[in-house]
Structures are given as structure tokens and as C-alpha cells.
């Protein structure tokens, strides 16, 4: 959805501004252009040691890194019909916390261990002088691990974390007892501690990944100035995290548009391509074709409105 759109378009825009940019995401599929780097790291997750390996491709100035582990692949290959978070809406897979804490730890290793030389301006590992952008609850443990595992060892001393909220409704709320699975010290417990009036996933006291991500990061941002206002406007729009966000502050930065992908002069889905000089000739024809396809009256003088958004309960 929107998160995929942002991670598709924003990194190339940052690279075009001269930054060295890496994205780290789970390897949910055999992505045909992402190759095995043969770099393996061992991570301690949920009291056991897990091995992940990194796959990589370089596109439009961005190092795209994918974390390979059987639990990521099996969600899509197995009998789950490509559902990534749960068997059906509102139900979590049992291993969600395990998988996403694995992702957060792997993302902390990637800049240090991957020797990437695809870019003529940059070579070698990124090192530890970096800024992490942690998107939504799945990445919320990254600032927690950074603070408790790496910084005490003098690693990532100057690294900063920006936590970006795309959708406040999904917060990673889990039973309170699950805190012990996260390999974090007890002094971080307060950042996760959360009480709400809901019985899901359990009644009463819970842990809340997004709350911890907000509190443990250096900056909190979201996808538009208006959404930033909405999130602190009250319990309803802030989905019970409004007080937490008021405490840290939040900056709304409008989601941009990838003008290379959304370019009507080269768009493979348009039968008639156009630019700013031919737009007035082409659009009426495209509108008529759309009206015909949708079974509407074909008339170039009738306005047609398009709505793109989520239908969600």
C-alpha cells in the first residue's frame, strides 16, 4: 500500500540529492533481480540464535537489501495466500514479533557488514555514521536495539533514528508477557507499557511497539502536515497514542510523488501518451476510452472523478 509506494519513490529521490541510501526489507519472495550477497549474520532473537542472509540489488541509486529467513518466505509460499501479517484481518500470526524483531536487528547489521560497491560515488560498507528511518510498528524495535545493544559498545555513537508513522491504526499491540521475547532490558519496559479498553489481543495491560518506537527515536515524522495535526487532535484520531506523540512532537512531511513512475509521457498503461503540450488533446480521448471501458455514457464533456483510497472497516 502507501508504505510500499513511499519506499519505492522516496529513496531514489534522496539518492538524487546526493545521499547514500539503503532500504532494508524482508525477502518475501524470490525477487528476480536481487542476488545473494552470501553474507550471513547470526542474531539472537527470542532466546535463540538465528541466521539471516542478505540479498541485494541496486536500482536508481539505491541499495535494495532483503533479509532472507525461512519465516519470511514461508508466509508467501505456504498456504497463507500471500497474507503477510495474519491469516485474516485483525489476527496476528504467532511469529509476528519474532519476524519483525529479526528484521530490526538485521537492519542494524546491514550498514556495517555489507560491502556494497554498486555506486560510483560510494564504496564499501556504510559504516555506523548513519540515519535510520524506521517505518511503522514493524521497525519500532530498531531504536530500542540501537540504544541498548549497540551504543553501549560504542557502535553507532552518532547514528540517529527517525520514526515515520504511515498508519497509526496498526501499532503492534501484544500481551504484556511477550516483552521477555524481545531481548530488551527491563528499563525499556515503560516505553512499551500500554493500557487500553480493548480485549484484543488480550484484556488489560499490553506492550505497544509503536509507542516504544515513538519514545525511543530521535525524531517522529508522518506523511503530511495534516495527518500530523490529526494524530495529536485526540484519542480517536491518534488511536490512543495522541498523548505519547504530543510528548515527543511530530513533523508532517507531505508524501511526494515519483515523477519518473507517474509520467504520462512514458506510462505503459496509457494508450495515448501525453506531456504538457499535448495534454488537452490526449485527455479527452483517454476519458472517452475509460468511459467506454467502464460502461458509462461516452461524452468528453462529462466530468469523471477518480478516488484512490482504502476501504477499511
UniProtKB/TrEMBL annotation:
Residue stretches making up the Starch synthase catalytic domain: 1-246
Family annotation (Pfam families): Glyco_transf_5
Single GO biological process annotation from the record: starch biosynthetic process
Organism superkingdom: Eukaryota
InterPro entries the UniProt entry points to: Starch_synth_cat_dom (IPR013534)
Gene3D superfamilies associated with the record: Glycogen Phosphorylase B
SUPFAM superfamilies linked to this entry: UDP-Glycosyltransferase/glycogen phosphorylase
GO molecular function, a single term: glycosyltransferase activity
Assigned keywords, A-Z: Glycosyltransferase, Starch biosynthesis, Transferase
Pathway: Glycan biosynthesis; starch biosynthesis
Name of the protein described by the UniProt record: Granule-bound starch synthase
Amino acid at each position: 500500500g502507501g508504505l510500499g509506494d513511499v519506499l519505492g519513490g522516496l529513496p531514489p529521490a534522496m539518492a538524487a540529492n546526493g545521499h547514500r541510501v539503503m532500504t532494508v526489507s524482508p525477502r518475501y519472495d524470490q525477487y528476480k533481480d536481487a542476488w545473494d550477497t552470501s553474507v550471513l549474520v547470526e542474531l539472537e532473537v527470542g532466546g535463540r540464535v538465528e541466521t539471516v542472509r542478505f540479498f541485494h540489488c541496486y536500482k536508481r541509486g539505491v541499495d535494495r537489501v532483503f533479509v532472507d529467513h525461512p519465516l519470511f518466505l514461508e508466509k508467501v509460499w505456504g498456504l497463507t495466500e500471500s497474507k503477510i501479517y495474519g491469516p485474516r484481518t485483525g489476527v496476528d500470526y504467532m511469529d509476528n514479533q519474532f519476524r519483525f524483531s529479526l528484521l530490526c536487528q538485521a537492519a542494524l547489521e546491514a550498514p556495517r557488514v555489507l560491502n556494497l560497491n554498486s555506486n560510483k560515488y560510494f564504496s564499501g560498507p556504510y559504516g555506523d555514521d548513519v540515519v535510520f528511518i524506521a517505518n511503522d510498528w514493524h521497525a519500532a524495535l530498531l531504536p530500542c536495539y540501537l540504544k541498548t545493544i549497540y551504543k553501549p559498545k560504542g557502535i553507532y555513537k552518532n547514528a540517529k533514528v527517525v520514526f515515520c508513522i504511515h498508519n497509526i491504526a496498526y501499532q503492534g499491540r501484544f500481551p504484556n508477557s511477550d516483552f521477555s521475547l524481545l531481548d530488551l532490558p527491563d528499563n525499556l519496559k515503560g516505553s512499551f507499557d500500554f493500557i487500553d479498553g480493548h480485549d484484543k489481543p488480550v484484556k488489560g495491560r499490553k506492550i505497544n511497539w509503536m509507542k516504544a518506537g515513538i519514545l525511543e527515536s530521535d525524531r517522529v515524522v508522518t506523511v503530511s502536515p495534516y495527518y500530523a495535526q490529526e494524530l495529536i487532535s485526540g484519542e480517536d484520531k491518534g488511536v490512543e497514542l495522541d498523548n505519547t506523540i504530543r510528548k515527543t512532537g511530530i513533523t508532517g512531511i507531505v508524501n511526494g510523488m515519483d515523477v519518473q513512475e507517474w509520467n504520462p509521457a512514458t506510462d505503459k498503461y496509457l494508450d495515448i501518451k501525453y506531456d504538457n503540450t499535448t495534454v488537452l488533446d490526449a485527455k479527452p480521448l483517454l476519458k472517452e476510452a475509460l468511459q467506454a471501458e467502464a460502461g458509462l455514457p461516452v461524452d468528453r464533456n462529462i466530468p469523471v472523478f477518480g478516488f484512490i483510497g482504502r476501504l477499511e472497516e
